[in-house]
Predict the 3D structure of the following.
Amino acid sequence: MPVTVLIGAQWGDEGKGRVVDWLARDAQVVARYNGGDNAGHSITIGSRVIRLHLVPSGIFYKDVACLLAAGMVINPKNLLREMDEIQTAGYDVSPARLTISHNAHLVLPTHVALDAALEKFRGGDAIGTTQRGIGVAYSAKMLRTNLRAADLREPEHFADALHKQVTHANQQLAHEYRAPALNADALSAEYYAYAKRLASYIGDTSPIVHAVLARGGHIVAEGAQGVLLDIDMGTYPYVTSSNTGVAGALSGLGIGPQPITRIVGVLKAFNTRVGAGPFPTELFDATGAHLRGTGANPWDEYGSTTGRPRRTGWLDLVALKYATRNNGVTELVITKMDVLSGFGALKLCTGYRYKGELLADFPADAAVLQQVEPVYESAPGWAADVSGARKRSDLPAAARAYIARIEEFTGVPASLISVGPERDQIIIG
């Protein structure tokens, strides 16, 4: 099984990190292929919850090599903070374990400042970005004006180049957004130190990937966010700035489609979304609040990157089918089945009404999706606590029927079902 691609099949926050953690047990390499630290993957190990934003989720297995691939945008400051946290927790994050592609682009303090200024400038039309500079960094990449991880190999050159970037950005901040200027001298000195620490981690990840494939090894390609946020296939403009699906894995890792043997789509048993954008099944009542949780537990529906409460709603099968079809998903992983325990009845969205017309397909056009009315079918709920289930037959009949309906509607079987936040709270098959 050479390459397993793991994608989020909704709007992100599906629980991909703990699924990658599960798949990494049989992998030689885990590679993040897109996005930056605007995404967060939480992994529960015993009583400790570790949130990863950049480092691949395979880092907790000592024999797994971890790659930050070319499709990513990486904030050096935040990467080092994360590496230090992982090291403090007792895990090795040396260059022997972690390689950063020299082709990966960098998120600079200029990008963060411009992101915040632009969101403020948008006012009521704000997209709801994490304000971590991700979109601005990808814009600079496309404009061919950005710095890349390769530049970190020469800290003095990098510091000089960053100084110029800050000087240029200050003009834009002042004249376009009337925002405060950044201190070019202080930032160049600060990031010089980061470059010195990271220089030994920079390398060419492509030969690593192809060497593992040549010897029949297993690579897990870890996607960030969800495919409904894909820059091309998502609900534009309420999307992220990278390709979050299989296409992103191909370009990020530098491989063709032939080695991919599994495409795993991760979904919650209900829907959530962070930030602005259409959400047809969103709930604004006590049911939505119950799905969200109070925030007292680290696995409640609050963003691991921003801490913002997530919007919640019933499971949207139409959107899910769109996500799985467009990415050739071969198997599903359903998370948070335990959250649905205690509901007397559940709903599943199986279509939309738009201006009197029944839509069977997902319209990625945000303007249309904003106006649709979900068409629901009802499903019986269950009262039993399912967190101790380890076989599908351990689940209540209503829970098994709920899973079967997801499989039937999408045409994709579920291979794993999560019934709690712990590593071993998994049903296989």
